[in-house]
Amino acid sequence: MAEPHPSPTSAPTPSPRRFPQQSKKIPTVVMVLAFILVAGLGYVAGAINTGTLWGSIGKLTGQTDLDLASVQETYHALKKNFDGDLDEKKLIDGANRGMVEAAGDEYTVFMNSQESSDFDNSLTGNIGGGIGVELSLRNGVPTVVRILQDNPAEKAGVTVGDIITAVNGETTKGASLDSVTSKIRGDIGTSVKLTINRSGEEKEFSITRDQVNNPSAYGEVKDGVGILTITRFDNNTASLARVVANDFKKRGVKGVVVDLRGNGGGYVTAAQGVAGIWLDKQLVASERRSGRVTEELKSTGTPILAGIPTTVLVNESSASASEIVAGALHDHKVATLVGTTTFGKGSVQKLIDLDAGALLKVTIARWYTPGGLNISEKGITPDQKVTRSVEDINAGKDPQLDAALKAVQ
């Protein structure tokens, strides 16, 4: 739950009052007190204008303000000399963004109202009109890392590993991932033209956008083994995964494969719920600040798949909440890991609502697996290393899944 953003309120201006006329002379001492009161109010008003009052209050409460005089100086110089129009909102967003980036943590970011909305939609899967692909910057170029089932991109023949070199004829070279994604999305029923490089060969796709069907968890049974695929950890993930798990239980599966490949994470509470399908109120991860344990996260829900042989599929794009689940199930020895080393994101972020719909995502702690491992930058190494090449993908082969299925049979 995001905390409200506190903002100071200025002192109220006294409303005029009517007094009955009196012929009695006002005593001198009263006049002196009145003068002191008026002078005091004048100081307070001045203090509010200069920030002195709130700086003093900050010292009392432990919350201090930055001296932004140099920022104002820069703004005044820019406004006075710049040959062109200045968008004040963009300037303010830029100042906020620059300050947060200066913290030096890649996961602590400022988002304006549009970016905040896009971020929220990415967690809920509510992306409106699109084609059903997930992209990542690989070597500086937008690359398809996941194809969502029963969506336009899959039907058109786009595959994992495809490099998008142009959208509607505009090159993606040097473009941000957000920019490329926003160009691909659009109104339902409209078309987008993608130029794709696949193993050195250039291909053109014209794809009609549709409402993207993007559940965060779904399952299937193959050769008596249940395959639970989790694409992200949102508010619905634990309940969706539990429905799939119950179905596996009713069908008497002899083993389960949990596919977390390409899953960039999400809410920690969702990770606790998914882990609870195997673990009975056991430690999932511990949060530490400055090396001190601040919270221990336990699994939630009934462990309906406890005792069933389980393998977790991971790769270099499995991050955050995915790594929490993989690490917890592995450390409690209820699952083996197959695939490639995970991304390595061992930090916890908090979402804080700011003014005008903006959002601050800030790192508040580091998390550790039940075995005491923080996986920042190094990731989790699987028990069985199996790679999946672009050639495998284009040929419709999945040696990682094959190995995971074999491990539970």
Number of helices: 12
What is the CATH architecture descriptor of the largest domain?
A: Alpha-Beta Complex
Extended strand count: 19
Overall mean pLDDT: 85
Annotated CATH homologous superfamily of the largest domain: 2-enoyl-CoA Hydratase, Chain A, domain 1
Q: How would you sum up this structure, described in words?
A:
This protein is an alpha+beta fold. It has three domains: 28-57; 128-211, PDZ domain (Pdz3 Domain, Roll); 217-407, Alpha-Beta Complex (2-enoyl-CoA Hydratase, Chain A, domain 1). It contains twelve helices and 19 strands. The chain has a six-stranded mixed β-sheet, with helices on both faces. Strands 1, 13, 14, 17 and 18 form a five-stranded antiparallel β-sheet that branches. Strand 11, helix 8 and strand 12 (255-259) form a beta-alpha-beta unit. The longest helix is centred in the N-terminal third of the chain and has 23 residues, at 28-50. The protein is globular, with a radius of gyration of 28 Å. 32% of the residues are buried.
Structural topology:
Elements: H1 28-50, H2 52-61, H3 69-81, H4 88-101, E1 109-111, H5 113-124, E2 129-130, E3 133-138, E4 141-147, H6 152-156, E5 163-167, E6 170-171, H7 177-184, E7 191-198, E8 201-208, E9 210-211, E10 217-222, E11 225-230, H8 237-250, E12 255-259, H9 268-275, E13 283-289, E14 292-298, E15 310-314, H10 321-331, E16 336-339, E17 347-353, E18 359-368, E19 384-385, H11 390-394, H12 399-407
Helix pairs in contact: 8-9, 9-10
